[in-house]
């Protein structure tokens, strides 16, 4: 990923998506906000116990750094579901300044409306941003192990295809910083649920370092699901940045032992 900085706020950008001049996208870091303690400094989640006023100030800082109006952001109340929302013009700004108006029970969002920044919040789960430059459709997805088992990422691609007539082979995807196969340890119950939900553990679950523990490879799982849905491997960019290894730069719920802020990944179609 490439890094940009404005007034102390550091944002990261996928190399492939950066080549398209008619979209804006970013993954935020911890750098350049107002929050303190476990939320230092650019916590973007209202729901984690931080001061709401500071979160609002942080979101304004993010908006300034990304060059996107704060009232163009759309957030969802993420629930580790398989639910995908088609966001129309009325969805612009939902959840931007308060949680109350965020899209309910949603983990994937798609739109073809310009000047709506689809935004997901994460701190270990995988943020996925997608773009179809042919039909001009964007998507943002929040995919942790639960969402992966519910096929939230393929469901989002299918929504792009069914609702907007996209072709999978035209879609580009970026997998942002998240808990990597170096760190993401799970127990027997997750292994069992994975087998029941996906029918195979291949490329997803491997033995962990400690007895009774396993590694859940979120990056490979999402990549395989995208390729099964028809995306070209060359169109999939995996950041390869583990947020737990790099918890100074990206919030990690696991590194913070359950208390941490959230960083965001967002994508917006610009006016042509
Ligand atoms: Zn790691």
- Coarse structural class: alpha+beta
Number of helices: 6
Low-confidence stretches: none
Helix content: 10-25%
- Please report which band the strand proportion falls in: under 5%, 5-15%, 15-25%, 25-35%, 35-45% or over 45%: 25-35%
Shape: globular
> Mind summarizing the main beta sheet?
6 strands, mixed
Named at the architecture level, the CATH assignment is: 4-Layer Sandwich
Q: In words, what does this structure look like?
A:
With 272 residues, this protein is of the alpha+beta class. It has a single domain (2-164, 173-179, 238-269), classed as 4-Layer Sandwich (CNF1/YfiH-like putative cysteine hydrolases). It has helices spanning 15-18, 52-66, 145-149, 152-164, 188-198, 218-228; strands spanning 2-6, 9-13, 23-28, 73-75, 84-86, 108-111, 117-122, 126-132, 137-143, 172-175, 185-187, 205-207, 213-216, 236-238, 263-269. Strands 1-2-3-15-7-4 form a 6-stranded mixed sheet. A hairpin with a 4-residue loop joins strand 8 (126-132) and strand 9. It is globular. The mean pLDDT is 97. It binds zinc ion.
How would you sum up this structure in a few lines?
With 272 residues, the protein is an alpha+beta fold. Helices cover 22% and strands 26% of the residues. The chain has a single domain (2-164, 173-179, 238-269), classed as CNF1/YfiH-like putative cysteine hydrolases.
